[in-house]
Amino acid sequence: MAVQRVLILGGGFAGIHTAKYLTEMLGSRKDVEVELISEENYFVFQPLLPEVAAGGIAATHVVNPIRELVPKARFRCCRIVEVDVANRQVLIAQGEGLEFVALPYDHLVFCVGKVTNFASMPGVAEHALAMKDLGDAFKLRNHVIRCLELADIETNPLYKAALLTFVVAGGGFSGVETVGELHELVTRSLKYFPRIAASEVIFKLVHSQDRILPEMPESLGAAARRILEARGIGMVLKARVKAASRERVYLGDGTHIATRTFVCTVGNAPNPIAKAVLAAGSLPEAEIGGKKTGLFLTDATLECVDHPGYWAVGDCAAIPNPNGPGFCPPTAQFAVRQAKTCAKNVLGRIDGKPTQAFRFKALGMLASLGQRSAVAQMLGVELSGFVAWFVWRTIYLSKLPGFVRRVRVGLDWTLDLFFPRDITQMQLIRQDRLQVNHYEPGEIIVQQGQIGRELYMIVRGEVEVVVPGAEGGPENVVAKLGARDVFGEKALLEDTKRTATVRAAASVDVLVMSRGDLRSLVGQFPVLDDYFAKLLRERYPATFTQAQDLTRALSDAEPSARGEAEPSSRAQPASTP
Amino acid sequence: MAVQRVLILGGGFAGIHTAKYLTEMLGSRKDVEVELISEENYFVFQPLLPEVAAGGIAATHVVNPIRELVPKARFRCCRIVEVDVANRQVLIAQGEGLEFVALPYDHLVFCVGKVTNFASMPGVAEHALAMKDLGDAFKLRNHVIRCLELADIETNPLYKAALLTFVVAGGGFSGVETVGELHELVTRSLKYFPRIAASEVIFKLVHSQDRILPEMPESLGAAARRILEARGIGMVLKARVKAASRERVYLGDGTHIATRTFVCTVGNAPNPIAKAVLAAGSLPEAEIGGKKTGLFLTDATLECVDHPGYWAVGDCAAIPNPNGPGFCPPTAQFAVRQAKTCAKNVLGRIDGKPTQAFRFKALGMLASLGQRSAVAQMLGVELSGFVAWFVWRTIYLSKLPGFVRRVRVGLDWTLDLFFPRDITQMQLIRQDRLQVNHYEPGEIIVQQGQIGRELYMIVRGEVEVVVPGAEGGPENVVAKLGARDVFGEKALLEDTKRTATVRAAASVDVLVMSRGDLRSLVGQFPVLDDYFAKLLRERYPATFTQAQDLTRALSDAEPSARGEAEPSSRAQPASTP
C-alpha cells in the first residue's frame, strides 16, 4: 500500500492540534505520513499575549517549539510559496538558498489563519502597534516602558502628555484585555518614575460599536466597561479609526487624540496563501450576503465543498456553525475542537470509513481586565471581578501546552503577586532602517525655530512651506513641495533652528533620515551619494565644496558637540526638568 | 551649603555599584545629588551571557532595571554626546526630540567600559556575532536554532556542513564559556532534528596563544582544554582571525573554515566618549610601553591624575594594581570593589576628609564549560569538573542582584536539569534592512547554474565575471566589475539560472537585495526607482518596457510561483531530503 501524505499548513491552534490528534490516532502506523509546515518554529498561546505585553508573563513562556508539541509529525520551518491544486503539491521555499521544493500531498489541511491588515487606514501600518504575534507583544511592552523613560525627562509639556497617552483601538477580547493589562503595567511602574504623576497618564479605548465585548452577553460587556472606567480608562465608543500619524490617532468624526502609543487590534485580512488559492478559483470561497470572505467554504465534516482531500480548520475556514445559522466563530476553542474532528475525518477518508459532522458548544468566554479582575461566562454562569479573574487564570494555566511552560507561567504569576513589574526596556535589535512617517492634512512636520536634526524626503503627497507674516500678520506660504522633493537638509550639516514651518497640505508620507541614517545609506549606495552630494553642493556652495566627501562630512562628530551652534540648550543647563 | 552634583556615566558593574554605594553612604543627606546616566535602562549581569546564548537562562532573567537597583540615585536614560571638561558639564541628547541638555557636575565618574570593535578584521563586523550585551546573546541563541532548522531540511551537503559548523574566536573566559555552552545547546537539541546526525556537528575554538584561559593557572587552562576536547570541540591554537565572509572564517595562516556561525569574542576598543575626551587631552591617558591605551589614568584613589573631581572605575580605567605591577585587570570583581573605594573617596573629597588607596585581592576565577562542568580557582584551591561547576553556579546565583532574579535563574537552572532545552527560534523583529556581504579574494559570489533571486551592487572592491571554456577548456574572464556596478539584476524579473559565475577579485563588499528589499527601497526612494528602472530598461528592453512601472513589476507574485520558469526544482519534488 502506498503511503498517504497529509500536509498541514500553519502552526497556530488549528495546525498544531490537527497534527497532534492525527499523529496520536495513527500510533505506530507507517502507511500515513503527517507533515506540518510553518514559517515560525514555535506555537504561540495567543490568549496570553496581552499579559506578555504587560510584562506579567515572560515572552518565552507562552511559546512552545512545534517539534516538541508534535514530535511524531514531520516538521518543516519554511515559507509557503504556492498551493498548486492542479498538481496536488505545495511549493515551498526552504533552507539556506531559499531553494524551491514541491511537496506532494494526498490530503491538504489549511490552518493558515488570518493576518493583520491596516491598509484601509492611512498611517496605521506605519505608526500603530499590532497585537497578533509574539513580536507584537514584545515590542509593545518595550515601547510602553520607553515612553515612561522619555516622559520622565521630557521638558516639553505637549510631548510629555502625548508620551503618557495610551490608545487602544478595538473593543473585542484582544483590545479590552490589552488596555486593561497595559493600564496595570503603567500604574504599577509609576513608582520608579518620580517625575510622572498618576494624573498625567491617560488611557483610551476606541471602539466602533456602542458597547464593548460584543461577543459576550450584554451584562458582562457592561460590567467590563464599569470596571475599566472606574480605573480611569476612557471609552471612546461608536468611533472608528480613520488614520494615524506619528503623533495622532484620527477618528471618523474628525477629532483626533495626541499619542505616541497606538495599539490597533482591528484590521484582519485573509492569509495571502488562502487569498491566492481562492482567487484562482481552485477551491470554493465562502460568501456572506454575496460578499466574498476570503475563507475556505467547508461542509460540516470540515472538507472543502466538492473538493475531496482538501480540509480547512480554524480562522481561515468557513465551517457551518453546529449551534445556529452562519459559520463557527474564529476562536481558539473552536479551532481546537475542529482540529479533532478534522483529524478523525482525514483518517476516516484514508481508511474508507464514514466521516462525521463537527459538533461543539462553546464552554464559555473569558476576558481578563488586568489588576486581578476579569469577566467570564462559564456553562451559563456569569462572573466578573476577582472570582472571574481567578477562574480565568486557572483555565488558561491548564490549557497551556507543556509542563515546563505551566510551571514557568505559574511562577511568573506568583512572583507578580508579590513583586513589582519588570521595567527593563530591551532594545534587542537597534532599529537602523529608514522610517516613513505619515501625516494627515494640516499636521506640522517641521516647526520653525525648533532645532533640526533630520532630513525629509517626500514619498507621496504635498507639503507647504510656511513663514509667519511680518509683525504678527498672516502667514505666507512660500513654497509647495511634492513627491521626490527634499527639505530640512541643512540639518545634515549643522544643528540650526528651522527657518520655516513645513506643514502637510494633503495626506503625506515622508522618509525621515538622521545624519547617521544617511551616512550608512550613502556608504552602501553610491547612487544616493551622488544624488545628495549634488543637492548639498547646489544648495550650500559655501559650506559644502566640490572637493568635500559627503560621507566624511556626515561622519564628523555631531556638529553641536563642537560648540557654538546651540546657545539655547547650552544656556539652559539641566536643573530639574 | 550648595548641593554637590556627582554624575556617573555608564550602567555596567562599575556605574551601578558606584551609584549604589554612594547613595547608601549618603543615607538621607540632601547636600549631595547622585545622578546616573546610561543609554539602556537596565543592567546586564554579563558573566551569565553565554548561558543566555545557550538557552539555559532566559534573557530577561539576567537583567535588572537600573531604577530598581539604585532607587535613591536619579536616573536618566539617554545618549551621552560629549564631556565638556572646560565648562564642567556633560552634554546629553534626551527625550522625544533628542533635545540637547547640559548637565553640570562637581564630580564626574567615568564607568563607560569598552566597546566591541572588529575594524581590523575585514568582514567580521558584517558576519560575526559578538558576545558583549544582551542583544548579542539573544541573537546568537536564535541564530544557532535557525541553523539547526535550516540544516534539518537542507539538501546541499556543503551548505549543510557549513550550517552545522560553529566557530568561536577567543580563548579567554568569554570565548571558552560560549563554545562550551553552545555545544551543550546543540547536542541537547539534536533529538528534535531527526535529519541531523551528531557526527555532522563541528565545533572549533580559535585562539591566538598556545593555551586557552591564559588568565588562569596553566593547569586549569589545560584541564578546560581536556574537558572541551573530550566532547569533540576542536582547538585551533596559535591562530588569528584575519577576515570573515558570509561563508567562511579566514585565519592568519591562509587557511579557512566554512561556517555560518562565527562568534567573535576578541576585538575591544575604548568607548567613543572616553576616546574623545582623551584625544582632546582634557584628561590624562594611560600608556603601556609608550602606546596609548584609551584608558583614563588614575592614581591609587581612582581619581584621574592631576584632575581633582574626575574619577574612573572599571574597564575604562587604568588603575594601579595593588597586587603587583601594571594596572588592575578588567573584571567584574575588580570593578565592584573599585566602585566601593570610589564612592568612599568621592564622599571624602566632598567632606574634606582623606581619601584611601584601592586595595583588593581577587577571590578567585571561574569559567563554566557547559554540561555541568567548569574550572575554578578559589582562595588558592584549583577545581575542575562537576564540583567547580557547582561552585560556579552557587557563587553566581549569590552575586546576581535582586531576589526575584535569583529565584528566576534558580528555577531556570532547576528546570534545565530535568527538561530539554527550549528550541523556540524567536524572530522578534524581522530584519528588513539591507545587507552588505563581505567576500575575500577568490570567493564565489554567484555560481553559474544556480537559480538567482538576488541583485548585487558592489560597494567596494572588484569582481570577475567568469564562464567555463568550451568543452572543458580553461575558464574565460569575460568582464571585471568595480564599485557602483550592478550584477545579477535579471533575478529581479525572473528566477532563471545564473548565466555566469561571479568571483571576488579582491577583498570586496557587496550590497545584496532581494526583490522585496528593492521593492520597499524604490517605494521609499524615488531616486533609486529612476536609477533601477533605467538600468533594467537598458539591459532588458524586451521584457521591461518604458511604460512598465518598476514597483509594480517587482510587486508581482514571485515569478516561480507562476509556473514555467523553473523546471529543475519542480521536476524534483520533495521525497526525503
From the structure above, extract its key features:
homodimer; 16 helices; FAD/NAD(P)-binding domain; 577 residues; Jelly Rolls
Structure description:
2 copies of one chain form a homodimer. Chain A is of the alpha/beta class. Chain A folds into 3 domains: 4-39 and 78-116 and 269-351, FAD/NAD(P)-binding domain (3-Layer(bba) Sandwich), CATH 3.50.50; 124-266 and 365-418, FAD/NAD(P)-binding domain (3-Layer(bba) Sandwich); 435-566, Jelly Rolls, CATH 2.60.120.10. In chain A, 31% of the residues lie in helices and 27% in strands. In chain A, the strands form 10 sheets. In chain A, strands 5-2-1-9-21 form a 5-stranded parallel beta sheet, with helices on one face. In chain A, strands 13-12-11-17 form a 4-stranded parallel beta sheet. The first copy, chain A, has a 4-stranded antiparallel beta sheet with strand order 26-33-28-31. In chain A, strand 29 and strand 30 form a beta hairpin. In chain A, helix 13 crosses helix 14 (526-539). Mean pLDDT of chain A is 87; it is low at 557-577. At the A-B interface, strand 4, strand 7, strand 8, helix 5 and helix 12 of A face strand 4, strand 7, strand 8, helix 5 and helix 12 of B.
Oligomer: homodimer
| Beta-strand share of residues of chain A | 25-35%
Total number of domains of chain A: 3
Q: Treating each run of at least 4 consecutive H or I residues as one helix, how many helices of chain A?
A: 16
Task: Indicate the overall shape of chain A.
Answer: globular
Report the span from N to C terminus of chain A: 78 Å
- Widest sheet, order of strands of chain A: 5-2-1-9-21
Low-confidence stretches of chain A: 557-577
CATH architectural category of the largest domain in chain A? 3-Layer(bba) Sandwich
CATH topology of the largest domain in chain A: FAD/NAD(P)-binding domain
Radius of gyration of chain A: 27 Å
Class by SSE composition of chain A: alpha/beta
The biggest sheet of chain A amounts to:
5 strands, parallel
The helix fraction of chain A, in percent, is 25-40%
Most residues in contact: chain pair: A-B, 97 and 97 residues
Q: How many strand units of chain A?
A: 33
Q: Would you state the CATH class of the largest domain in chain A?
A: Alpha Beta
| Average of per-residue pLDDT values of chain A | 87
